[in-house]
Amino acid sequence: MIKKIIVSALLALSLTACGEKEQATTSAGTVEQQTYKWKMVTTWPKNFPGLGTSPEKFAKMVDEMTDGQIQIKVYGAGDLVPALEVFDAVSQGSVELGHGASYYWKGKAPAAQFFTSVPFGLNAQEMNSWLYYGGGMALWQETYAPFNVVPLAGGNTGVQMAGWFNKEINSVDDLTGLKMRIPGLGGEVLSSLGGTAVNIPGGELYTALQTGVIDATEWVGPWNDLAFGFYQVAEYYYYPGWHETGSTLELIINKDALASLPPRLQKIVEVAARAVNQDMLDEYTAKNNDALNTLINEHGVKVRKLPDDVLAELHAASNKALADLAENDELSKKTYESFKKFAEGVKNYHRYSEQAYYEARDLNAN
Ligand code: CA
Questions:
Q1: 314-329: b (≥16 Cβ within 10 Å) or e
Q2: 161 CA distance to ligand 1 centroid (A)?
Q3: pTM for the full model?
């Protein structure tokens, strides 16, 4: 009899430890608190600056704000699932949360590309504005609904760099035959101009450049690119990041997992995502310039601006790639129309505000 009780108690303990939810019940039998132990998989190396530390901050924030009711364990790329299987894991519910970039999933839903960044698209401020006040978030939710996934914006890198190259780009002809890691529509634009675009997870890029598997790679910007050490395996660092003009990272949630939370906890998850979305941009803005100076002054990196005529060709090819995308997929068409209308409006106003101010403050920089 005693043995049976002990076995039952052990069984109950182990079930509690493995289960996704725990309930503490008072002696009166009422539910006092339900605890959610969630897993979050990411497309980044564990604790990679900005991209990987933001999901950790999110987990900590949610833990603190829920007084420990939601506990999230964050996994780096490959720890639980490979980087490019994050979306599937969340969709299937084998994990509750994911952190990555929507354009990685263009093969599942072409419209997803709009929610990271499209070439010659919006800057970070404008992206957030489109998502939260221009209808973008509703379209993102519609794009992911068939997959049982709810998207939230989970960070922004700001304007990226064009990338690391082992040959100089002096004309559009230099893109011919260039094998470059560049995901999303940027990759399609490169391909349309004679290059070969590949998508490789961040953690594999250094070796790919070193061994000559690729001739060039884009990643993010100075702070992140310094961390990966690309300056050791590539000669030129080009700007501006025409292909990623204010990239939104995504924080994705399995729809059933989110629905299992009481409204108060759902709100905390939403607000914490909004907080890390802004926090990531703030941190990039603070750290990129110092990292750029380190690359130039300590590592002798050759920084080059893409020639204007190359940028003009890339822009024309980008417009065509966006139009082709819209033509071939109904949801992409709807998203492109929303994005385009918003972009035209915000770009016009920013000519009078942000852009005019950038130009004005450089007139007498000293
Ligand atoms: Ca990038």
A1: beebbeebbeebbeee
A2: 8
A3: 0.89
